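Lay summary. Proteins are chains of building blocks that fold into shapes, and those shapes determine what they do. In this project we predict the shape from the chain. Here is one chain we studied, written as its sequence of building blocks.
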Amino acid sequence: MTLLKIKVRFGNGQSVISGDTGIIFTKVRRENNRANLDVMKQISQLCNIPMNRIRLISGHSSTKKVIEIL
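And here is the predicted shape, written in a compact code that computers can read:
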């Protein structure tokens, strides 16, 4: 189990995860949980792990999120 502290930014940019922190850029609106799903999808691609191993712990409506990787 690993915890990542993620900052979410709106717009273009290079998403980066370094150690247990990261910055994820998204263009998806914060409607119906779509932005959170996009953030989790990007983390999945950056870390090469399946989506079902990623869980949003806190920050559901915040730009600062804590993600658990199982």
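What the prediction tells us: Strands lie at 2-10, 16-18, 21-26, 54-58, 64-69.
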